[in-house]
Amino acid sequence: MNTNAPGPKKMLIVNILEILKSRTDTNHRLLIKDIIAILAKDYAMQCERKAVSRNITELKEFGYNIEYGKGWYFIHDFDDSELRLLIDGLLFSKHIPYNQCKALVEKLKGLSSDYFDTRVKHIRNLPHDLPENKQLFLTIEILDEAISTGRQVVFTYNSFGIDKKLHPRLNDAGEVRRYTINSYQIVAANGRYYLICNNDKYKKVSNYRLDLITEIKLLTTSVKPMKQVEGLENGLDLPKHMAESIYMFAGKSVTVKFVAKKYLINDIIDWFGKNVRFGSQSNDVCVATVRVNEDAMFCWALQYGPHVEIIEPAELRERVKEAVAAMGEKYK
């Protein structure tokens, strides 16, 4: 906002638009006299009512969403509740570096009026000392191009060490391992971005966390067709894939039947979606059947151990039983 030298008359329409965008919304409206006062105070511009009215009419003719009702106001593309949802999504994400998250939040706040800023001052960003990968946005950009153009990528995949820093995974010779990947889809799950893809050395579907990828490079070679990847022969059924891959583990999916306490039904639907089938029930328990990644179900059963019991398949039930016994020994 220019508060110094008087602006040229040709800037009048620009300043009026800025005033309407920043100082009005459906709950805050300005009369012509109010706009004239702001122009004089903050822009050092003196103008008449006719000039302001004419410029507002021209802005409306240009296609700007400006309405009148007990005063002029600008209709923003997003209402405050929509912006709040977008900002909350950023603040509670686990993959976006702190500084980039903060910059994105400021940009989103700029899509509403100045009054919106006062409503989100109580929102605090997540701790800025979380481990972060500053190459994340570059990774997303290159993967977007790779998926759009059907080209392979190669990258380094990392793991966090006890120093809270990323360390590249190594091959058997102790060298940094480079992954040649056929990329098919980027998804968000459990507060993180994942790449649904195929490691070119294997036939199965893989899921890689984007925040653990570094040193990515776009190749000229074409991706492997999905029909050549086990589990993607008929294409990627994304809702089905996400429902089965609750922790984004790679590997086979199996049909699992388990008994659960009824108070867990909300959690079961949250995790497995509405494709879960509920069978017989009593006053406090029910039987559920889901199609899910076997390793993911193993972890889920341990997480909800006191509340669920795996019935089928027998191999998974035995696996959980052995894990529980091993844990019992540790805490004996």
Task: Report a brief summary of the structure.
The chain has helices at 12-23, 32-42, 49-61, 80-91, 98-109, 114-119, 136-149, 238-244, 265-272, 294-303, 314-330, and strands at 66-68, 72-74, 151-160, 166-168, 178-189, 192-199, 206-209, 213-222, 253-261, 277-281, 285-293, 308-312. The protein is of the alpha+beta class.
Describe the structure.
- It is a single chain.
- By secondary structure, the protein is of the alpha+beta class.
- The chain folds into 4 domains: 9-74, Arc Repressor Mutant, subunit A, CATH 1.10.10; 80-119, no CATH class; 136-236, no CATH class; 253-330, Alpha-Beta Plaits, CATH 3.30.70.
- Helices cover 37% and strands 24% of the residues.
- It contains 11 helices and 12 strands.
- It has helices spanning 12-23, 32-42, 49-61, 80-91, 98-109, 114-119, 136-149, 238-244, 265-272, 294-303, 314-330, and strands at residues 66-68, 72-74, 151-160, 166-168, 178-189, 192-199, 206-209, 213-222, 253-261, 277-281, 285-293, 308-312.
- The strands form 3 sheets. Strands 3, 4, 5, 6, 7 and 8 form a 6-stranded antiparallel sheet that branches. Strands 10-11-9-12 form a 4-stranded antiparallel sheet.
- A hairpin with a 3-residue loop joins strand 1 and strand 2.
- The protein is elongated.
The stretches of 5 or more residues where confidence is low (pLDDT under 50) are: 1-7, 122-127
Helix content: 25-40%
Secondary structure tally: strands:
12
The string of secondary-structure elements, in order, is HHHEEHHHHEEEEEEHEHEEHEH
